[in-house]
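Checklist before submission:
- one chain only
- standard amino acids only
- sequence pasted in full

Submission:
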Amino acid sequence: QVQLVESGGGLVQPGGSLRLSCVASESIFSFIIMGWYRQAPGKQRELVAYITSGDFINYADSVKGRFTISKDSAKNAVYLHANSLTPEDTAVYSCNARRVNISRVDDYWGQGTQVTVSS
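Returned file contents:
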C-alpha cells in the first residue's frame, strides 16, 4: 500500500510563506499525476495544484502566482511552495497520487497537514 506523508504545515502570519512536503513510500515515477488539495472548515475539498508525470502543471485560480508545485523524483517527493498567504488559505492540505493501470485507477491520500494563516 502506498503511503504519502505530508509535512510543513503550521501557523503563519498573513503575507507569509510555507513549504509543504509530500513524501511517497515508493517511486513517484509510477504515478501519472500528483497533486495538492485543501479543505477549509465547512467547505468542500478543492484542488490546489497538480503536476503530471510529464511535468505538466496546473493551479487553481485562487493560488495562481502565489503557489508553486514541484517534485523531486530522487526523493520521491512533491512540494507546494505557498507565498503571500492570506486567511482564506487556511485549510487542511492533503497530498494525492494517482496511478493508472490498464483497467483501474488508484488514488492515494496522505493524512493532511494543517495550514493556519492568522495574525
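Reviewer check: The chain has no helices and eleven strands.
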